[in-house]
Design brief:
Blueprint (H helix, E strand, L loop, with lengths): L5 E5 L10 H8 L4 E4 L4 H21 L9 H15 L4 E4 L6 H14 L7 E5 L7 H6 L20 E6 L4 H8 L4 E4 L6 H11 L6 H14 L26 E4 L5 E4 L10 H8 L9 E2 L4 E3 L4 E6 L2 E5 L2 E3 L4 E21 L3 H18 L6 E7 L16 H4 L15 E10 L2 H8 L5 H4 L4 E2 L9 E12 L6 E4 L1
Length: about 475
């Protein structure tokens, strides 16, 4: 018998999101499904490196490799009492990262330790292209950069991760096979919601209108509290953001759904918060492309039904493309960023000079840095052209800058941030050593140096590409 509706709540919008949100949502949200979205492009490259570095040691010690979102394990352990009280509650998450099997095995230990052996875990794999990347290239699949047209072969030796965005069908397949917990690698964010809805209602995979509705629902909740008052332009009207409620969609078989949040939680769900999230990270709102459907957001109707309940209807869709998007990350040098607090008369001018002194000293040491950036936080540099400019006498600028008039000349306190990126690690490391000396060898009024030298980090550049769906074989495995 088909359900009258299914309640899906998302308790995580990214790796590092509020660890309490999933527990509170599962406890008070009357959910059928709890989704947890941990992945982003940068996250995949970080997890890939973690897995690479742990592989040899893990194998030698007989331990599982890393490469998945370990926050999920902390959340799962805290969820076990709720899972015991709510035996029908299911979890769908992309916490598997680049190692869904390792994540599943670690999760299995937690469930068994809590006496929840009956909770079946299934993983969705097939998104990781690293094992077949060279074969794909040798067979003429260029995986060309969607922005530049360059073939991936030009940076192949520096690639650290390559993952296709899978869709909702393998998630639905895992649920049909009896999974209580589905752990995936890279899937499209909205597919975490589409999968459970399609499974529960038996939606056909060419039912573009219903798939589009599910995609809109998934898109609205994928970023967690952004649809319940977070990032809202009128955030002052969202009460008790410290206790913000994470979002729930209650979906009907027709695809019509309502957005809400648990009772007695902070934040706000209204037409404005939903509309803002609907347009978040959207290129063409008439063709929001996912592996499942091309969703038309311009057809959507938003209606406030009651306080903190918005009904969403009339979503239309068209057939999905024959390609998966592929997110590829490759090593692209090193970066470091350091800050100092600059105070006193004309702090803005002083800060700019201090930034130039730092870069000049690196150059005198023999390193001509490839990319540099000087910012004065509090002086409008974060939003150039937004803060009104204040004229600075030209004579003040002599020997300081060649870029013309700067804003807010007479500020008495700013934060100087100097950032660099370079293909040479040694050049970046030398840069980090030039902040502290400025305290006694630069202008007066410099502080904030006691946290130590800035950290040198690898840069992972983003390479978007497409691959024909026929070349990818999503798989569902039991654990």
């Amino acid at each position: 018998m088909t359900r009258q509706s299914v309640r899906i709540g998302n308790g995580c919008g990214f790796l590092g999101d509020n660890l309490d949100a999933p527990i509170l949502l599962a406890k008070d949200g009357r959910l059928d499904y709890l989704t947890l979205d941990y992945l982003a492009e940068l996250t995949m490259s970080i997890l890939a490196l973690q897995k690479q570095r742990s592989s040899s040691a893990a194998i030698a010690l007989g331990m599982p490799q890393t490469g998945f979102a370990k926050d999920f394990l902390d959340v799962l352990e805290r969820l076990t009492p709720i899972l015991r009280e709510q035996p029908s509650l299911k979890i769908v998450t992309n916490a598997g990262g680049v190692n869904p099997a390792g994540c599943a095995e670690a999760a299995k230990v937690i469930l068994y330790g809590a006496g929840l052996e009956n909770r079946t875990i299934r993983t969705v794999t097939g998104d990781d292209l690293m094992p077949i990347l060279d074969h794909l290239i040798s067979q003429g699949h260029a995986l060309a950069n969607m922005e530049t047209g360059e073939p991936l072969s030009s940076v192949r030796e520096r690639v650290v991760s390559a993952n296709a965005y899978l869709g909702a069908k393998p998630i639905a397949d895992a649920l049909k096979l009896g999974a209580s917990i589905v752990i995936t690698g890279r899937v499209a964010d909205a597919s975490l919601t589409v999968g459970p809805a399609a499974h529960e209602f038996g939606w056909a995979w060419d039912d573009w209108y219903r798939l589009s509705s599910g995609t809109v629902a998934g898109h609205l909740i994928e970023c967690g509290a952004q649809v319940t008052g977070g990032l809202w332009c009128n955030w002052q009207e969202a009460p008790d953001l410290a206790n913000v409620g994470y979002p729930i969609v209650e979906i009907e078989p027709s695809g019509l759904f309502r957005v809400t949040k648990p009772p007695n939680t902070g934040g706000r769900v209204n037409r404005e918060t939903v509309a803002e999230q609907l347009l978040y990270e959207v290129g063409d709102p008439a063709a929001y492309l996912t592996p499942d459907v091309s969703a038309d957001f311009t057809s959507v109707s938003l209606t406030e039904k009651e306080t903190d309940v918005v009904e969403v209807s009339a979503a239309r869709g068209r057939p999905a493309t024959d390609s998966y998007k592929v997110s590829i990350a490759y090593r692209d040098g090193f970066t470091a960023s350091g800050t100092l607090v600059v105070f006193g008369a004309d702090a803005n001018i002083k800060a700019l000079k201090c930034g130039e002194i730092i870069l000049d000293r690196v150059k005198r040491a023999g390193w001509n840095l490839e990319h540099t950036n000087i910012e004065r936080l509090g002086a409008g540099d974060c939003m150039p052209g937004v803060a009104p400019a204040l004229d600075i006498p030209k004579e003040w600028l002599t020997g300081i800058t060649e870029h013309g008039v700067y804003s807010r000349a007479h500020l008495h306190e700013v934060v100087l941030r100097v950032s660099v990126r370079d293909s040479r690690k040694a050049a970046t490391e030398r840069f980090t050593k030039e902040f502290a000396p400025l305290v006694t060898s630069g202008p007066p009024g410099i502080t904030g140096y006691t946290t130590g030298r800035p950290q040198v980090r690898e840069v992972f550049a983003y390479w978007p590409a497409l691959i024909n769906k026929k070349l990818i074989s999503p798989q569902v495995q039991i654990h």
